[in-house]
Write a structure and sequence with these properties.
188 residues, alpha/beta, two-stranded antiparallel ribbon, 7 strands, 33% helix, 20% strand, binds flavin mononucleotide
C-alpha cells in the first residue's frame, strides 16, 4: 500500500520523529511503500479562504504558488496518510494545520447534494506526542481529527498518543511497542 507520513515536527530528531520512525520502519518491513515528508522544509502558506479551488473540483487547484501541490498530490495518490505532530497548545503544529487547511481544495459540496472528495475512502491516521498526559490535554486534537474525515470522506484508520514525552532518548520500549501496534492497526 502506498503510504505518506506527514512529519509535522520541526525537530528532525525529536520525539515525534522517533515515534514516526518506528511506525515507518514497521510499515516498510511489511512491504508497504512509505514516503515520509518533513513538512518544515517545504514552503507552505496558510489557506486564503478564497474558495477559488472550489471552482475546479476535479483538480488540486490552489491560486497560491507554493509547495502545497506536491504534498496534496502525494496525499491523493496514497491509500493511507499518517499525520504526525507534537501537541502544540492542545492542537497540531502549524506545519500540519497548514496542510489540513489546504485540503480544502480536495473536496466539494460538503453538507450538500453532490458532496465529492479526491481522497474519498482514503485511510487517515493521527500520531501525536506530548509532554502531558492524554486527559485534560490531548482529547481535542483527536476530536478535530475525527471530524476532518467527514468533509474528506475518508476513513479514520487509527490514533496514537504518546504522552509524558521528555526527550527522544527517554522514549522506552513501551512507546516503541505502541508505535509498532499502531502501524499494524492502521493498515488492517
Ligand atoms: C510551542 C509548544 C507548545 C506545546 N504545547 C503542549 C501542550 O499543549 N500539551 C502537551 O502535552 N505538550 C505540549 N508541548 C510539548 C510537546 O508537545 C512535546 O514535548 C512533544 O513531544 C515535542 O515533540 P518533538 O520532539 O517532535 O518536537 C508543547 C511544546 C511546544 C514547543
Amino acid at each position: 500500500m502506498k503510504i505518506t507520513i506527514l512529519q509535522g515536527s520541526a525537530r528532525k530528531k525529536g520525539n515525534t520523529a522517533r515515534v514516526a520512525g518506528w511506525v515507518e520502519e514497521e510499515l516498510a518491513a511489511q512491504g508497504h511503500e512509505v514516503d515520509l515528508v518533513y513538512l518544515n522544509s517545504h514552503n507552505l502558506n496558510g489557506c486564503l479562504g478564497c474558495a477559488k479551488c472550489k471552482e475546479k473540483p476535479d483538480t488540486i487547484g490552489c491560486v497560491q504558488k507554493d509547495d502545497i501541490s506536491e504534498i496534496l498530490e502525494k496525499m491523493v495518490n496514497s491509500k493511507l496518510v499518517i499525520f504526525a505532530s507534537p501537541l502544540y497548545f492542545w492542537g497540531v503544529t502549524s506545519q500540519i494545520k497548514t496542510v489540513i487547511d489546504r485540503t480544502y481544495s480536495l473536496y466539494t459540496n460538503y453538507h450538500q447534494p453532490g458532496h465529492a472528495s479526491l481522497i474519498a475512502g482514503q485511510r487517515q491516521a493521527l500520531l501525536v506526542t506530548g509532554a502531558g498526559p492524554y486527559e485534560n490535554n490531548a482529547e481535542g486534537v483527536f476530536t478535530a481529527f475525527k471530524r476532518m474525515q467527514n468533509p474528506h470522506m475518508a476513513v479514520n484508520a487509527g490514533e496514537l498518543y504518546i504522552g509524558l514525552c521528555t526527550t527522544p532518548d527517554n522514549l522506552d520500549e513501551s512507546a516503541q511497542h505502541k508505535a509498532v501496534e499502531f502501524a499494524k492497526e492502521i493498515v488492517s
